Amino acid sequence: MLRSCRNPKYLLLAAPALLLASCIDTVVLPIEKTIEEDYWKSKDDVSGMVTGAYKQLTDANVMRRFLVWGELRGDNVNPNEDMQSNGGLSTLMQVNTLNMDDKNTYDDWSSVYAIINKCNLVLEMAPGVMSIDPQYTRGVFQTDRSQMLALRALAYFYLVRAFRDVPYVPVAYRTSSQDFEVEQIAPDSLLTICINDLEEAAPIALSPMSYPNGLLTSDAVRAILADVYLWRASMNHNNPAKAARNQSDYQRCADLCKQVVDAKAARIKLQMNSTDRMRKLYNEDYGLIKGSQLYAEVFGKGNSVESIFELQFDGQLAANIPVCEMFWMYVVKKTPGYLAASQAFGTAEKDKVPVSTSNVFFSTNDYRFWTSCFDVDNANAEKFSVRKMVSTSTAEVTKMEKQAFVGRGTTEDDFNKYAQNWIFYRTTDLMLMRAEALVQLAGAGSTLNSSSELLEAADIVKLVSNRSLSVADDSIQIWRDYNGRDLMETLVLSERRRELCFEGKRWFDLMRYAYRHMNGVDATKKMSEQFVAADAQGNTTGEADATKFPAVASEMLNMVKAKYRDGGAALAFQLSTEPKMYYPILESELKVNANLKQNPGFRTTGGEYQKNY
Residue 145's closest CA among 211, 224, 198, 191? Predict the structure, then answer.
C-alpha cells in the first residue's frame, strides 16, 4: 500500500491492473478510465488512483515537456547539431529559435491535463469511500487530499509558465458527453487558485520524517507554494494595484523557504550521527553537503539529504527516457542526446567575475564547473555534453582529481536501464529562492550597509557558492562589485544558473527576471482581452495585437541571445513582446475547444500557420 512503502526507488511504479485498461475519448479524459460502479469501494481503490496520479507524473510525455519548457529557450542549452536530422530535432530547433507553430509537439498539454484529471477524480470520489470502508479514515483522506491538491497545483503551475492563459478544470472528466469547451483564465487567477490549494494542503501533508522523497510531503508542498508566490509577485511586479500583495508574496516566499530549509537541517542533525555529519556536511545549519561530495550524493546516488521532492525512476518499471534522450543519447551507441550545453559552460571567467554572459563559472576551483558538463576547460569548443543527471559516478571529487573526473568514461547509465531521478526541488534551490525574494523586499536604492534583506541574500549566495569551491579565496567579492539591489538581483540569478543548470529551472528564472523589468504587464487579464485591434470604424476584430503588448526586457534578451553563435540579434525580434515568451496552443486543441483563444503571438488563418508579429 502507498503509505507503508519505504523503498523510494520502487515507489509509485506499480498501479493496480485495473488502471492499465485505457480508453481515451478526448485529450482531457484520464488515460486509465475506470468503471465507477466497480471502483471507489475501498481504501485500496483510492490508494491505487493516488498512485496512478503520481505515475502519470513519470510519463515520458510529461517529463519531456517539463524539461524542455523549463530549460531549452534559456541560455544553458542548444539542440545538438551532431544529431542526425529527424522530427524530434526539428521540433526542438523550432523551440530554440522561437519559430514555433501551432503543430509543434511541445504545444501539446494533454499529458499534463491527464495528471490534473486523475487528481480531480480522487478529490471528487475519495470522500464517499469513507462511508463505505471504515479503514479509510478522515486522517487518511486528508493526506490523500493534500497530495492531490499539491500535485494538481504543480501541474497547473507548469502550464501557466509554459502557456500563460490555460483552462482551469475543477471537475473530473469521465464520459465523452461532458462539456469539454472550457475557457482559459488569466494567470493571476489560476496562480491564486494554486496558492489557495497549496495553503490548504500544507498543514495536512505527509510528514518528511516518515515518507520518502517520491511523495509530496509537507516540505515539498511548501516548496511549490514558495515558488508560486515568487512567480505571482514577479509577474505582477510593476502593477501598482498589486504592490501591497506583491510585498506580501515575496515575504511569504522567503518565510516558506526558510521554514523548509530550517526544518530539513534540524532533521539531518537528528538522523545523522556526528561522524556522518562531519564527513559529509559542509554546513549543518543548512544541511548542505560538502562540495567535493555534492555530485556523488545528489546526482550519483540520488535522494540525498538535500532532496525535497525527487521523482523516482528505477530504469525498469519506470525509466527516465526523456533525460536520457535529451542529455545523453537518443539511440544507444549511435547518436548523442538532443541537447548540448552552450559554450558558456566550457571555460571559467578568467577575471573571476561571477556575472557574465560569456561564461557561467567564474573559477576553475568550482567543483560544479567540472561536474556539470563533460570535457570542459576547452576555449575552442562550441558545445559540451551534459554530465549532470547522466553519469552515475559516486566518487568524491577532489581538487587533484577533478580534471580526470570529467572525461567520458564508463560511468554513464545503460540506455536500457536509465534510472536517474528527476529533482523538482532541493535545499539550495529554496535558499536561492529566498535570496531572490529578499532582494525584492529591499527598498529601491538599497545597499548592503542599509538593508538587512540584501545582506542576508548576499550571505546566502556566498554560502551556496563557497561550498562548491575547493579554494576559499575564490569567494565572490560581493561588497566590492554587487553592493546594490539591482546588482544583487543579477548575482542571485547567476548563482541559480551555476547551481541548478540543466535541472529545468533556467527559462523560468529568466521569465521571472524579465517580468520584474517589464512595464505594462497585466496578469489579471487574458492575452485575448488586451490590445484588441479595431478597424477604421472602431469595431473590434476580436484579435489581440501582439505588437502592442509590453516589450520583453532587454536585460533578459542579452542573456539569452549570448548562447547563439549567430543569429542572436534576430532573437530580439522573435522574442519582442510578452506573448512570445509562451508557447502557442496546439492546433488540434483549438479545433476541439471553440472557447480557446490562440496566443496572439501566433495565429492560424485558412488552415495555414502564420507568424503574428
Answer: 198
